[in-house]
């Protein structure tokens, strides 16, 4: 395997991805990601220096509209799905000590 | 005659003529669901009571002359990554197990407005990540042609349900082949339209630059009628495009004389099953005999589509799936210490293995230091792939090849080696990168009795070429239904004889 994923890297990816991995999962993730990156490195065979990165296949630019509210107040329905709610708002653990 | 033998458009016609009632059609679908679901598991949610209410309402509107479209009253199913107000929408994930949306996806809404009777929500790979429907948190779906095999994925539930007669048509979504590959494995027809043709509003996003909703049905005319109904520029999806050529059913012409068809030699090489190759080339021969000009050509870059796709799709997934944090909807872990721990634990417990694998890869390729080497490199590759297709479509009206390198694998054989599973999407993935329309049409079965799919690819906005070629080919064959779908009808016929 050409790409060796270090413990630090997988730790960092866990922070970015907001995932908590068990030690076994971490080992598996290191292996899987290394294998995948080896495969993705195939792209390096290709000379892409003349190509612009293409994020969208059609030449569309920003789509604007007037900033007018068109949907109604659906608070009750929205809150129905909340794991926890309080006083018409989503309840989350304390964020500031 | 058995109702379940009809295609969606044929059923719609009979309903309009008053020969079959909407409730009668819905009951036939529900009976088939009851008969086969214990074995197949095509659906995550079936809403029987609501089906009957819908049927009564639609029947009244047909009788009153309010509804007169070709699909009015026809029972159908929706992949479980499209929102339907009031019905659970799970993406086949534990993290959305209890999510009940407050609104309906635009594509579904457009069908409902035309009188669709929604039977339920179909099973899929979790968040559409997978090629077998085995990554579903609610159990795998089985292939109606042989329940020891997978139906393909990620729209496996939709395709299996159509094949099994558990609905007359279904909606699927296709990010890298998720409509076409399971259509191929289940012996049904599916179209992935040009990017932007169908609004993605209400579709739970996976890879936003690649995702597109499309029809799955038994016939090309069905798919054309469904696509005609759902194609729509929607203000709620800024990537949806204005098209004035959405009269797709006008392309249902049994004539391919002079049509230029190219077969990429890259799609016939190593890794392709011999029986699939033979069936696809036989289909090409059929179109040639009907007057098409068929030749092989070198498309190039085929082997770079999969690595580019996994960088782009995983990157977009890592961003799109960051919304699942246990705050506004979905699963929240039971015990946690503080906000960040709550996020992390909810996500780690709520997402399955394949989803986590892709979120991590996506986070990595977007992280500083790797962004240029991986993400921008993949976007540059995408540009080159688009150029290769542009060159091909300067010479051909349609590109023809296999949908998948093999027929459906056995259950349990794919997930152990993700990379190998990813390679199964080799012929479908480039189409998404280039934003093109693609379609899978059944073209026979292999010696084990498993269906083979013929893939037709068109230039952007040229669905009509696919529909014409697919229809002309379909006219030379009769629809094959898996034996299992006929079980009930046969049992009843036997009882009548007795």
Could you walk me through the main structural features you see in this protein, from its secondary elements to its overall organization?
The complex is a heterodimer of chains A (97) and B (498). Chain A is mainly α and 97 residues long. Chain A has a domain at 7-44: Histone, subunit A (Orthogonal Bundle). Chain A is 36% helix and 4% strand. Chain A has helices at 7-17, 23-40, 75-80; strands at 85-86, 89-90. Chain A has a two-stranded antiparallel ribbon. The radius of gyration of chain A is 23 Å and the shape is flat. The relative contact order of chain A is 0.09. With 498 residues, chain B is of the alpha/beta class. The longest helix of chain B has 25 residues, at 371-395. Chain B is globular. In chain B, 62% of the residues are buried.
Share of helix among residues of chain B? 40-55%
Biggest sheet of chain B, strands in spatial order? 1-3-2-4-6-5-10-11-9-7-8
Which geometry of chain A do the CA atoms define?
flat
Poorly predicted runs of chain B: none
- The domain tally of chain B reads 1
Secondary structure class of chain A reads: mainly alpha
Number of strands of chain A: 2
CATH fold-level label of chain B? Amidase signature (AS) enzymes
Largest interface (CB within 8 Å) is between:
A-B, 51 and 68 residues
Oligomer: heterodimer
- What percent of residues of chain A adopt helix (DSSP H or I)? 25-40%
| Number of H/I helices of chain A | 3
User: DSSP strand (E) fraction of chain B?
Assistant: 5-15%
Number of H/I helices of chain B: 16
Features of this protein?
heterodimer, A: 97 residues, mainly alpha, Histone, subunit A, two-stranded antiparallel sheet, flat, B: 498 residues, alpha/beta, Amidase signature (AS) enzymes, eleven-stranded mixed sheet, 16 helices, 40% helix, 12% strand
SSE topology:
The complex is a heterodimer of chains A (97) and B (498).
Chain A: H1 7-17, H2 23-40, H3 75-80, E1 85-86, E2 89-90
Chain B: H1 8-16, H2 22-40, E1 43-46, H3 48-63, E2 75-79, H4 106-113, E3 117-122, H5 156-163, E4 169-174, H6 180-186, E5 189-192, E6 212-217, H7 220-230, E7 260-264, H8 274-289, E8 293-297, H9 305-320, H10 338-350, H11 353-366, H12 371-395, E9 398-402, H13 418-423, H14 429-433, E10 438-445, E11 451-458, H15 463-474, H16 483-497
Helix pairs in contact in B: 2-3, 5-6, 9-11, 9-12
């Amino acid at each position: 395997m050409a790409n060796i994923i270090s413990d630090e890297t997988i730790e960092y990816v866990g922070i970015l991805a907001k995932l908590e991995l068990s030690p076994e999962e971490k080992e598996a993730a290191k292996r899987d990601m290394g294998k995948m990156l080896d495969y993705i490195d195939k792209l390096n065979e290709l000379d892409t220096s003349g190509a612009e990165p293409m994020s969208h296949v059609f030449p569309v630019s920003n789509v604007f509209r007037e900033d007018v509210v068109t949907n109604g107040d659906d608070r009750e329905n929205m809150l129905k799905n909340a794991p926890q709610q309080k006083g018409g708002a989503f309840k989350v653990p304390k964020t500031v000590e | 005659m058995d109702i379940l033998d009809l295609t969606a458009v044929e059923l719609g016609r009979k309903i309009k003529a008053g020969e079959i009632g909407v409730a009668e059609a819905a009951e036939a679908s529900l009976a088939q669901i009851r008969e086969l679901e214990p074995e197949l598991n095509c659906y995550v949610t079936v809403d029987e009571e609501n089906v009957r209410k819908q049927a009564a309402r639609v029947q009244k509107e047909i009788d009153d002359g309010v509804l007169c479209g070709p699909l009015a009253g026809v029972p159908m199913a929706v992949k479980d990554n499209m929102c339907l107000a009031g019905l659970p929408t799970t993406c086949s994930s534990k993290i959305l197990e209890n999510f009940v949306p407050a609104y309906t996806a635009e594509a579904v809404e457009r069908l409902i407005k035309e009188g669709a009777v929604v039977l339920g929500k179909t099973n899929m790979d979790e968040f559409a990540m997978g090629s077998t429907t085995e990554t579903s948190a609610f159990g795998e779906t089985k292939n109606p042609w042989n329940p020891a095999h997978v139906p393909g994925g990620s729209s496996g539930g939709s395709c299996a349900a159509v094949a099994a007669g558990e609905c007359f048509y279904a909606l699927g979504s296709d990010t890298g082949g998720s409509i076409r590959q399971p259509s191929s494995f289940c012996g049904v027809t599916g179209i992935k339209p040009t990017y932007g043709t169908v609004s993605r509003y209400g579709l739970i996003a996976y890879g936003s630059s690649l995702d597109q909703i499309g029809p799955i049905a038994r016939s090309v005319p069905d798919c054309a009628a469904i696509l005609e109904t759902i194609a729509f520029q929607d203000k709620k999806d800024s990537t949806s495009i204005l098209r004035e050529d959405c009269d797709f059913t006008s392309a249902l012409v049994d004539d391919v004389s002079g049509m230029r068809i190219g077969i990429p030699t890259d799609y016939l090489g190593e890794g392709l099953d011999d029986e699939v190759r033979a069936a696809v080339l036989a289909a090409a021969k059929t179109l040639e005999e009907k007057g098409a000009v068929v030749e092989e050509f070198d498309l190039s870059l085929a082997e770079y589509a999969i690595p580019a796709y996994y960088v782009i799709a995983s990157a977009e997934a890592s961003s799109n799936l960051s919304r699942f944090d246990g705050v506004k909807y979905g699963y929240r872990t039971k015990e946690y210490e503080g906000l960040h721990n709550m996020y992390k634990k909810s996500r780690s417990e709520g997402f399955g293995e394949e989803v986590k694998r892709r979120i991590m890869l996506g986070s990595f390729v977007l992280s500083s230091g790797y962004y240029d080497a991986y993400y921008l490199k993949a976007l540059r590759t995408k540009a080159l792939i688009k150029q290769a297709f542009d060159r091909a479509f300067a010479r051909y009206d349609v590109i023809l090849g296999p949908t998948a390198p093999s027929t459906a694998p056995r259950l349990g054989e794919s997930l152990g080696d993700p990379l190998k599973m990813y390679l199964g999407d080799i012929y479908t993935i480039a189409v998404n990168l280039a934003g093109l329309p693609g379609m899978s049409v059944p073209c026979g079965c292999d010696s084990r009795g498993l269906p083979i799919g013929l893939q037709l690819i068109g230039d952007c906005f040229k669905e009509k070429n696919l529909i014409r070629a697919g229809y002309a080919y379909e006219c030379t064959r009769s629809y094959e239904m898996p034996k299992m779908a006929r079980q009930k009808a046969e049992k009843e016929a036997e009882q009548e004889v007795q």
